[in-house]
Amino acid sequence: MFGIYSPSSAQEVLTKQEAITQMLDNNFGIQLAENQLDIADNNQDILNSGYLPSLTGNAGANYTKDDQDVTFRDGESNSITGAETTRYNASVNFNYVLFDGLGRFWNYKSLKEEYNLSSLQARETIELTLLQLFTVYYEVARLTENEQVLKQTYGNTQQRLKRAEYSFEYGQVNKLEVLNAEVDIVNDSINLLNTRQLLENAKRDLNVVINTDLDRNFDVDTLVDFTNQIQLENYVNSADANNVNLLQAEKNITISDYDYKASKAVFLPSIGLTGSYGWNEGNFPVTSFATSSTTTGVSGGVSLSWDLFDGGRGITTTKNAKIQYDNQQLVKEQIKKEVTRDIYNARGNYQNRLNVLDLQKKNISTAKNNFERSSEQYKLGQITSVELRQSQVNLLNAQTSSNLAKYDAKLAELELLQLTGQLLNIEF
């Protein structure tokens, strides 16, 4: 009388490690973070340091045509209409800053630290994306297990309906028993259909995180292992040296320190080298002392520039850089306090969810025993179908609550591992 569509089981099993690999290869957020890291790597290169000289090439040509009236020193004069003059030049020019008040030295070191900061930012992106991945992965796992529980519940209700129909047919029970079973099997069918829809949605969410085909179907690994408590405590104790937010704060302090030191370059002189190799050629009319000339040669020099007073802008910049450095120190202390709080909260949440999981496991054993006894009593006519249904619902709730508690506890552990800076160092 009642039936429900049962989809064919997926053949592919998407393991945790495979999901991580596909996420690292395909996730858009991680790709963007890696591109930003490449930009920072380019910026820290010697080509962007200011330490290399500049070499430029120049070339030019000039032509003039004019009427000239010329009087020479010996008193002779000459007039030319349409006198033509042509000039050509080419040169290679060399410029190099020998000393700029140590500005580029500290700027170069700052670029190195900015690359390290970008590396930490990329790591943070990977950590947060990994948490997102397992939030969805474990949701798929939870719904998968819930589906199995609901299928089992549906099967038990089907058997009860058949038994009630046979009993009614032989006059052993009234029609109410059949009607109750029919209502219950409809409710079980709805719950199973809703769970399957949620499961399909969750799989699509996971496909988005790993950036694969949205219609891709798969099973997931529902096995959950927890980290050794002693090892986890060691991670918590070393969190100050490994938390990614604290490490970023340290880099920002270092960068601000270098920026402050670089700002002091305005108070020191700048010394540079210049050099040139050039060629010049000119062709002149008869009114000139020479009809043509060609020169080639090398020139070079040393220059010194010292901004003795720039109106106070340099002093202001240096003062502000020092304040920025002090601000980064304050930001680090604030982050340290917040991270410590978050770790305490995460550790408390984790321990609480482990305790809840232990209680839920015990509750399953009790509910299963109660349902088995209720089933026997129902067969003997000692309890009603309503009482049997209540024991069945209690077992269903215990099983689904245990599934939720298991994955909640694992996610709480992963959040704690991320805060301690060890999320990328564990095996899944």
The gyration radius over C-alpha positions equals 40 Å
Q: Can you give the mean pLDDT?
A: 92
**CATH-level-2 architecture of the largest domain:** Up-down Bundle
CATH topology of the largest domain: Outer membrane efflux proteins (OEP)
Task: Decide which structural class fits the backbone.
Answer: alpha+beta
Low-pLDDT parts are none
State the total count of DSSP E strands. 6
The SSE order reads EHHEEHHEHHHEEHH
Main beta-sheet annotation:
4 strands, antiparallel
Overall 3D form? elongated
Count of separate DSSP helical elements: 9
Helix content: 55-70%
What number of structural domains do the residues give?
2
Secondary structure layout:
Blueprint: E1 13-14, H1 16-26, H2 28-43, E2 54-71, E3 77-99, H3 103-169, H4 175-209, E4 219-220, H5 229-237, H6 239-242, H7 244-263, E5 270-283, E6 292-305, H8 313-379, H9 385-419
Parallel strand pairs: 1-4
Antiparallel strand pairs: 2-3, 3-5, 5-6
GO molecular function: efflux transmembrane transporter activity; porin activity
Main location: membrane
Family: Belongs to the outer membrane factor (OMF) (TC 1.B.17) family.
